[in-house]
Design a protein that fits this description.
Blueprint: E1 13-19, H1 30-42, H2 52-55, E2 74-82, E3 85-92, H3 97-105, H4 108-116, E4 128-132, H5 135-146, H6 148-151, E5 163-164, H7 166-169, H8 180-183, H9 189-204, H10 209-215
Antiparallel strand pairs: 1-3, 1-4, 2-3, 2-5
Length: 218
């Protein structure tokens, strides 16, 4: 799927995703994935905040603590980080928000190359994006993104290199996703859980080929 030609629209939802060049891992260990999550939290701000390295010298700099009080570029609805690729559902909050956020997040490549003594691109080109243009698509997409790691049968040591908003949706208090747009359409968390698990299996089994074709690009 090619790069977007149309600008992102404020208050609209988008599926954002990418993978490592040649399908290589973008997370080697838990330190890498925690650094990526830290980047997500700290760089989601309309104001420049410097580098994570510089901020590491500040006192009382806990994840989410500083950025919780700031305006955001984007709103996260759901996400899944796998060893060699990621999926986000984002809502753009201000002009150019998604593009600016993803540009800043691209700084992870410098960190990764520096730490692992490598050179060259880390990701397979520019991030990919799809406009979420219907409520049904949003609901199915939330199921697919939340449970995406199941599609790749990740287990054992590899499971430690996975982060997903699935547990946030099931009631875990910590996290940074705005889930109401999805969970607000269900009477209970368990109702959503059943919907998500059934939808995920349906997608994998090609029972909904239109949705599957849109989602299973990675």
């Amino acid at each position: 799927m090619g790069n977007r030609k149309d600008p992102f629209i404020n208050e609209e939802y988008y599926h954002i995703y990418n993978r490592g060049v040649e399908k290589r891992n973008i997370f080697i260990d838990t330190f890498d994935i925690e650094r990526f999550v830290q980047s997500i939290l700290l760089f989601n701000s309309p104001d420049p905040i410097g580098s994570i390295y510089e901020m590491s010298f500040e006192q009382n700099n806990k994840l989410g603590g500083r950025t919780a009080k700031l305006d955001k570029l984007v709103e996260f609805v759901a996400y899944c980080l796998n060893p060699n690729h990621y999926h986000f559902i984002l809502r753009q909050l201000r002009d150019g928000g998604i593009s600016e956020f993803m540009k800043r997040l691209g700084g992870y490549t410098w960190y990764f190359n520096n730490r692992h003594k490598r050179v060259g691109p880390l990701f397979q080109g520019r991030f990919k994006s799809v406009h979420v243009d219907s409520n049904d698509y949003l609901l199915y997409l939330s199921a697919y993104v939340n449970l995406n790691y199941h599609a790749h049968q990740l287990g054992g040591a590899t499971a430690k290199l996975v982060r997903s908003s699935w547990m946030e949706y099931l009631g875990e208090k910590s996290g940074f996703c705005k889930k109401d747009i999805v969970l607000g359409q269900f009477n209970t968390t368990m109702e959503y859980k059943n919907f998500a698990e059934e939808s995920f299996e349906s997608i994998l089994e090609k029972k909904n080929e239109d949705i599957r074709d849109l989602l299973l690009d990675l």
